[in-house]
Design goal:
This protein is mainly beta. Among the domains are: 243-301, no CATH class; 312-380. It has strands spanning 46-50, 53-56, 65-67, 76-78, 80-85, 88-93, 153-154, 157-158, 275-278, 284-287, 293-295, 312-316, 321-325, 334-341, 351-357, 361-366, 374-380.
């Protein structure tokens, strides 16, 4: 028995479930749930070229990224790119610069960008977050820069600049708190190691103060000791040891800044801390709780540089008198004299300062006109 093939009909308004068969008709367009595509580019991606039309993009290369090309345009693919929107820049590259940031807000506060390591479950350790500059095959190593953004001024409303916070985690129960370690890079075989620069922000152009630089150890809540601040210069093998320098700010029109070192106070005056000055050999000077400055090691003492207009020196009498030219002397200077080398007199004679001319000179006179002794003098100013 032969079966006559079904010749079809113009419209099918209802159809049941089709479980078998092969579609040999035209492509199904977007309005009917299809893509309108009969083929696409290998390695490409489909996109809407119009509201009811789809197309296939060109093939994406290895490690390329896709960004929008605009309404009706194919997506753009880049191995590296820099895209600027308003004042924000997004950069990415296989061998160039890669930046990760949130787009700017159209109004209100900008969107925060957080990079956070994973939490741990139960008793495991939480993940760490590492920021590394790029490692070169040949050339300079990449840097890591963390920069807070400046504030703005809108309708006479001033805004503070952003802060940079480095805070280690707190310990739990008896566990130690985390430390913050900043280590500069080691030098090459003949190269110098990297340095540290801590610079507070400059003040306003007209009257603002520059920001302070604070180094402070943590408080102790229990009975333990508070943390110490230790500045240790590295040891040299064959060269000179490094220096420690503290310098206050310079003012072009006002007063220069102060440098203050103060010991901590205790529960009572007798328990106040001392301020120590130690040499490399361990000899020490100490400012005690009463403000006395005293040497704590036998054999140490004061040394003053002598020379023109110095605070200490020698003068030789001629006929029992001598004039010492010195611009450092003032009307209030306390002048201390002692015979250093006896000459012209059988016994030491009394000597005294006289004829002080501030900023110019002072005389030394002896009780004997025959005195030709060498006299040591010391100038000290009262506070």
């Amino acid at each position: 028995m032969s079966v006559t093939p079904y010749v079809g009909q113009t419209d099918i308004t209802t159809v049941g479930t089709i479980t078998l068969g092969t579609w040999n008709g035209n492509v199904v367009n977007v309005p009917y749930g299809g893509t309108g595509l009969s083929s696409g580019t290998s390695g490409g991606i489909p996109y809407f070229s119009a509201s009811n039309t789809m197309a296939s993009s060109a093939a994406l290369g290895a490690a390329q990224v896709v960004v929008g090309g605009g309404a009706g345009a194919a997506p753009l693919t880049y191995s590296s790119f820099t895209y600027t929107y308003a004042t924000q820049t997004l950069s990415w590259g296989v061998s160039g610069t890669t930046s990760l940031m949130q787009p700017p807000a159209q109004s209100g506060a900008g969107i925060a960008l957080s990079v956070r390591a994973g939490d741990s479950s139960v008793s495991g350790s939480a993940g760490s977050l590492s920021l590394f500059g790029g490692l070169p095959t040949e050339g300079n190593g990449g840097g890591v820069t963390i920069t807070a953004r400046p504030g703005a001024t809108l309708t006479s409303t001033t805004r503070a600049g952003g802060s940079i916070n480095l805070t280690a985690g707190a310990g739990v129960v008896a566990g130690a708190g985390g430390s913050v370690t900043i280590t500069s890079g080691a030098g090459g075989p003949t190269g110098q190691s990297g340095g540290f620069t801590f610079t507070s922000g400059p003040g306003g152009a007209t009257s603002g103060n520059s920001g302070p630089l604070n180094l402070r150890t943590g408080n102790c809540a229990g009975s333990g000791n508070t943390g110490a601040i230790v500045a240790i210069v590295g040891t040299a093998n064959t060269g000179n040891g490094g220096a420690v320098s503290f310098r206050s700010g310079i003012s072009t029109a006002g007063n220069g800044g102060n440098v203050a070192f103060a010991a901590g106070y205790g529960a009572t005056r007798a328990q106040d801390g001392y301020f120590y000055v130690l040499s490399a050999r361990g000899e020490e000077w100490r400012v005690d709780t009463d403000g006395n400055f005293s040497g704590q090691t036998v054999g140490i003492g004061f040394r003053l540089k002598e020379g023109t207009n110095a605070k200490m020196g020698l003068a030789t009498l001629a006929g029992g008198t001598v004039t010492v030219a010195n611009t450092a002397v003032t009307a209030n200077t306390r002048i201390f004299l002692t015979v250093q080398t006896l000459s012209g007199a059988a016994v030491p004679q009394a000597v005294a300062p006289a004829n002080v001319i501030a900023g110019t000179s002072f005389d030394i006179i002896s009780a004997s006109a025959a005195d030709t002794s060498t006299v040591a003098w010391l100038l000290i100013e009262p506070t």
